[in-house]
Amino acid sequence: MWKTPWFRWGAVLGFALGGFFDGILLHQILQWHHLLSLVPGIDDLRMQVLWDGWFHALMYVIALAGLAGLWRLHRRGTGQWGWPLVGAVLVGFGLWHVVDTLLSHWLLQIHRIRVDSDDPLLWDLLWLALFGLAPLALGLRLRRHGGGPGLQGTAAMLALLALTSGAGAWALVPPAQTGFATVVFHPGAGPREVFAALDALDARLVWSDRAMGVVVVAVPEERRWGFYRHGALLVSGAGVPAGCFNWSRI
Fold first, then answer.
1. DSSP structural state of residue 3
2. Distance between CA atoms of 120 and 140, rounded to whole angstroms?
3. Which residues touch 178 (CB under 8 Å, ≥6 apart)?
C-alpha cells in the first residue's frame, strides 16, 4: 500500500491537513491548548503563539510536498484520482491524530487535548477515536473498495489545492470582533512603551498580563495596524502577515 506513490503522497497531504485541523480548531478557535502548553518554562503567551506559528509553517511545508508529489504523478498520467485518493488523504489525516496522541500527548507530554480538564485521558481517547481511528478506517476502506467513479486527475488536483489553500487561509481569519483587540508586544517592551502606543492610537487599556507584554485594548479596527509601528508582534483583527514579519525580532 505505502509503496504506491499516489497513495503515499495523498497520505502526506492528509497528514498536513490533520495538523491544520488541530492547529486551527484547538489552538485558535477553541483555545484548549497550545503546542507547548505543558512544557516547563514556556509559560509566556508570546512564546506559545510563536511555536504555534512554527507548527503551522511546518504543516505548510508538508502540504506543499504532498501537492508537489501528486502533481508530478498527474503530469505523468498515473495515479488513482477518485475515491481511492480521498481514502489516502483520510488515512494521512487519521495518522496525524494517531501520531500526535502517541507522541505529543503521551510520550513527550507537551500538551493534551484539554489541558484544563480533570480527566485529560478521556479527551485524548475521544479525539483519537473520532479524528484518528475513524478516518483511518474509512480511508483504508475507500482505498481497497474504491467506492464508485471519482474525479479526473486535473479536477482532483484543483479540489485538493483548493482544500489545502482554504485550510491555510482559515488560519489567517481573525475571530468576530467585539470592539476589543489583543496586542502581543515584543519581548522587552515595558509599560512605558505600551502606554506610549496606547496614547498614540487613542486606545483604552482593558486588560494586561503582569509584564504588560500582552494587552487587551478597546480601539477601532482602522487603527489596529498602527500597533505594528509601536513594537507589536501580533494584533488580533489587524491581519497576520505584518505580525509574522515582526516575530523575527525574537
1. T
2. 29
3. none
How far is residue 84's CA from residue 121's CA, in Å, rounded to a whole number?
33
Residue 185 phi, psi (nearest 5): -95, 160
Cβ–Cβ under 8 Å, residues 33 and 13:
no
Residues 7 and 13: their CA atoms lie apart, in Å, by 10
The whole-number average pLDDT for the span 217-241 is 80
Please write down the long-range contacts of 222-225, taking CB distance under 8 Å and 24 or more positions apart: 224/181
Q: What value does the mean pLDDT of the chain take?
A: 82
Q: Cell numbers for 148, please give them.
A: 464508485
pLDDT of 101 over the 50 cut:
yes
Residue 206: which H helix or E strand, with range? strand 204-208
Per-residue pLDDT, 99: 97
**203 — phi, psi (to 5°)?**
-105, 150
The pTM of this model reads 0.68
Sheet holding 214-218, edge to edge: 204-208, 214-218, 180-185, 232-235
Locus of grid cell 512605558 = 192
Cell numbers found for residue 209: 498580563
